[in-house]
Amino acid sequence: MLGLLHVPSDPHPPVVVMCHGWTGNMHSHGLFVECADALCDEGFMVLRFDFRGSEHSEGEFSQVTVREEVSDLRRTLKILSKLGCDHKRLGVLGYSLGGLVALKGAKEDAKAMVLWAPTSRPAEEFKRILGDAKILELERKGYTWFVKDPSPYRRTVRFKVGLPFWREIQRLNPAREAEVVKCPVRVIHGVKDDLVDYRHSIELVKHFPGQSDLKLIEDANHLFDKREHATRLVELTVEWFKKWV
């Protein structure tokens, strides 16, 4: 795996680990970079990394599953521990599917979490993202190609999606994972998200501990790609980690 550390001047800082979403990477359209810089300015060490099969990390995207990404996160936490980082001052940020990975992989370690537009009904959401024709192709051939729409931040790219990913997605239950999380969780979601319905987050947050909360950003989409939305997203994230980590 490839990762980048943002290191503050404090020799014993709290740590935030960032988990990107499906077909994403440790830059996450610039959002992770902006947020990591803001957290570092507040004294946090921040680790951004690519899950296996993503961007610069080793592996094939067709072999990607949530279980493997959880394994990557667990391995990352062990590396941080070897570097002397204090797990008692650990925050974890998960974006989209990375939110589910964060829940499954860090629920016993994190002192606080922030989830951006988290996947909370995986089978329903990925069926809509892929479409019925792609699902049928997956079932028939064992793989399909997902074409990611171009955006202002990157070129159009294709991802080979494997059947193990789809099989696993149908079995996952984020609400059940949320019920065993002990740390406070802030969920941030855009009301105009066309990939993951913000109403799913309204239901999901009910399963987290009592200190948790939900912040909705009016008119924001899944990418939070308007300047005012990105700024608000980062502000809410830094605020939460400063409060709890």
Which characteristics define this entry?
9 helices, globular, 245 residues, 7-stranded mixed β-sheet, two-stranded antiparallel ribbon, Rossmann fold
Element-by-element helix/strand order: EEHEHEHEHHEEHHEHEH
Rounded to an integer in angstroms, the radius of gyration calculated over CA atoms is 17 Å
Amino-to-carboxy terminus distance: 26 Å
- Work out the count of structural domains: 1
Unreliable segments of 5+ consecutive residues: none
Specify the CATH class.
Alpha Beta
Strand arrangement, largest sheet?
1-3-2-4-5-8-9
Number of helices: 9
Helical/strand content category: alpha/beta
Q: Share of helix among residues?
A: 25-40%
What's the overall average pLDDT, rounded?
Answer: 93
Largest sheet: 7 strands, mixed
CATH architectural type: 3-Layer(aba) Sandwich
Q: What would the CATH topology be?
A: Rossmann fold
Strand content: 15-25%
| Net shape | globular
Number of distinct beta strands? 9
CATH homolog superfamily: Alpha/Beta hydrolase fold, catalytic domain
